[in-house]
Amino acid sequence: MEQDSKKNIQDYEIDQCDFICVHENVVSQVLKVMPQDQELLDLADFFKVFGDATRIKILYVLSQSEMCVCDIANLLKMGQSAISHQLRVLKQMRLVKFRREGKTVFYSLADGHIESILAQGMEHINE
Amino acid sequence: MEQDSKKNIQDYEIDQCDFICVHENVVSQVLKVMPQDQELLDLADFFKVFGDATRIKILYVLSQSEMCVCDIANLLKMGQSAISHQLRVLKQMRLVKFRREGKTVFYSLADGHIESILAQGMEHINE
DNA sequence: TTATTATATGAATAAGTGTTCATATGTTTA
DNA sequence: TAAACATATGAACACTTATTCATATAATAA
Q: A98 and A67: one domain?
């Protein structure tokens, strides 16, 4: 009996640690409720967009006002190309929207989520 | 008069765009309310921690239950060292806390903010 | 003490990312 | 039409970062 039980436990265990130190009950319970791998990858990609100072600054200034590329570049004291590249990233992740007016393109935040997430982040770091 | 005005405008403008395309009123207004540069850098660093699939997964499993390093490694099918390295990052950003029990170290989420931010991210990507 | 186990960490490597430069696209004005 | 302007984009380079490997540290058991 003792031996059978041990055998089964080892069958479940993956060889990730060199030795057996797994709390089976916890692991199997959490495995059940784990979202699909792809969803967590998407979530990481979403937050990755916030994880860059330039993009954070862009999002912040856009939370104050709609703005064209050149305005943003001037505000952040950065090149137009750098800003344009980052706006593309923000666009792809649907964090900003834009409208064209002649030669100028005005960008703005896509929705209220963005400001809300920024605010929560601020709360955390100011604790 | 006309000339003086133009001169002043150029004084304000930074040479970020090749040509003058700045909306001065917007730019100067937003400049007033911009947080300190360091605060936005910290905010980016904070979100950077969420911008990695491994760390997102760790945060997710810890949102379900306190867990030891080996448990996490098994759940994510990754090496113990990789998990340990990432837990250090999470620890430094005060996203997880830990308690020692003999040889084992149990990690858990530092506070409720974390789950809240994860949930908001999920909302956005599931739209 | 020594052996075993759980975790931590430094170094190395591979993969990813942000900016710059040059240039292309698209719009307006002359 | 050509010239000027605002933005977009591909390529290159420097920089960052995640994982692995080997090893160190720390706690327990023999």
A: yes
